[in-house]
Design a protein that fits this description.
alpha+beta, eight-stranded mixed sheet, two-stranded antiparallel ribbon, 10 strands, 17% helix, globular
Length: 162
C-alpha cells in the first residue's frame, strides 16, 4: 500500500496543471474516491486545481475556472451539465483516460489501452454545434484538437499545447 502524499506534495502536483502565475493563486482541492472534497489551500483567483489522481496510470492534475469546475462537478455527480456556460481547464502535465467515448469508464475496454494525452487545455460547457467538425471517436489523434466523449452531454474540446 502506497503512503498518502503530503499536503505539500499534493499542492505541487495540482500546481503542475497550469501556468504557475495562475496555479500559485488557485484553490487546491483533493477529491477522494467517494467524491468528497477537502480544501488543501484557499485560492485568491477564479481557479481551482486538483492533484494527480492515483486511480489512473499517468499524471492528470487539472486546474479549471469556476465554470469548468461546476461542469466537472456535474460530470462527477452524473448530472446534466450546462452546455451554455463555457469553462476553461488546464492539464499541462497531460492526462490519461480510460475511454474517449464513456465519461465514467473506470478502465479501458478489454484489449484496449488507456488514452494518453500530452499537455492540453479543454473547453467545456459548450453545445454540440461548437464541436462540429473536430475529430472524435474512440481513438482520436491526440496531437490535434479533438472532441472527448462526443455524443454525450459531457462532450468537450481537447486542445493540445505541445
Amino acid at each position: 500500500m502506497q503512503r498518502p502524499a503530503s499536503t505539500a506534495e499534493l499542492i505541487r502536483s495540482a500546481e503542475s496543471a497550469a501556468p504557475i502565475a495562475l496555479s500559485s493563486k488557485a484553490a487546491v482541492v483533493l477529491i477522494d474516491a467517494a467524491g468528497n472534497s477537502t480544501v488543501l489551500r484557499q485560492g485568491s483567483n477564479n481557479f481551482t486545481c486538483l492533484p494527480d489522481s492515483p486511480s489512473t496510470p499517468g499524471p492528470d492534475p487539472m486546474c479549471g475556472d469556476a465554470n469548468a469546475m461546476e461542469w466537472a462537478g456535474q460530470w462527477i455527480g452524473h448530472k446534466p451539465p450546462n452546455q451554455n456556460k463555457p469553462g476553461f481547464m488546464y492539464m499541462l502535465a497531460g492526462g490519461t483516460d480510460a475511454s474517449n467515448t464513456d465519461p465514467w469508464a473506470k478502465g479501458p475496454s478489454p484489449g484496449d489501452a488507456w488514452i494518453e494525452t500530452g499537455p492540453h487545455v479543454m473547453l467545456v460547457g459548450i453545445g454540440p454545434e461548437t464541436l462540429a467538425g473536430y475529430l472524435s471517436g474512440p481513438r482520436p489523434d491526440t496531437r490535434q484538437p479533438y472532441v472527448m466523449w462526443a455524443g454525450t452531454p459531457y462532450a468537450h474540446l481537447m486542445l493540445p499545447v505541445r
